[in-house]
Amino acid sequence: MTVVTLGAHTLDVLARPVPDVPDGRDTVIVDEIRVSAAGAAAGTAVALARLGNDVISVGAIGDDDLGDLLVTIMSRNGVDVSGLVRRTAVQTAASILPIRPDGGRPGLHAPGANLTLTPGAVGPGLLGAAGLVHLGGPDVTLGLNDPAFFEMLDAARGSGTVVTMDPLSTRPEPLGAAAAFLPYVDHFLPNEEQAATMTGEDDPARAAEALLARGPDTVIVTLGRDGSLVATGRDVRRLPAPPVDVVDTTGCGDAYCAGFITGLAHGRDVFEAARWGTAAAAVVAQGLGSDARLTGLDAVLRLLDAL
């Protein structure tokens, strides 16, 4: 199955462990510094490719060194980057993430070219030709919130394409805008904070029920160490996360989406596919960055025995 990832493309620079930001010109010696493809589209694209999928990624990046590096990383991992458009007047989106010893991740972020993405970047017929389209961070690629793009999604779904969506922000305004995409989505994968912000419901099950009413067939609320909650119109199940030593939570949501999509591509139902997502996220949590330790599907399937 060919998967199109569409939306936010970001370059992450990560360092760990960083217990405190130093004062003045002091230096903190860390164990590791890495650069990785991130953003809810680019990070998911790399994870999908590592899990054995054919992936085309569509987004907007700057015509700069950051963009060159992001393209190199994605291409080296087997992602088709022909759908990326280069902008000359704005930088590639980037984040600096000092990872705390407990895996927490405060960040510094420049949204850059993600804000310039429009439906014009999507090639004719691309979405309809894909087996699955993943909308990664449409809440921060505001130019996609356009009737022309919704028509593309509607036509693609009519031809059999499955659409998944994962928001990126935790702020009320962009998440409110993301709600416009829900009637055109089959499977929606927010985290607990995003689901609560979008619905006003602190209980994940009630939040999932409210989101289901807006259009998706499935809502999966990811719960970090507590696993995830999978809700359809007929059933609600909680899936535990396997016990692992958490190094960094960066990219766990992207990995969950990639594992879930891979499960669907292998013919699994949404509950079993969600187990694949949970295991993929657990693999990534054990290393630094959004692609850490995700060497292939076998590494994910081995963890399923712990669920």
UniProtKB/TrEMBL annotation:
Q: Residue limits of the Carbohydrate kinase PfkB domain? A: 24-291
Q: Which UniProt keywords apply?
A: Kinase, Transferase
| Entry's Gene Ontology BP terms | phosphate-containing compound metabolic process
Which InterPro entries does this UniProt record tie to the protein?
PfkB_dom, Ribo/fructo_kinase, Ribokinase-like
A GO cellular component annotated for this chain's UniProt record is: cytosol
Q: What SUPFAM superfamilies does the record point to? A: Ribokinase-like
One GO MF term:
kinase activity
Protein's UniProt name? Carbohydrate kinase family protein
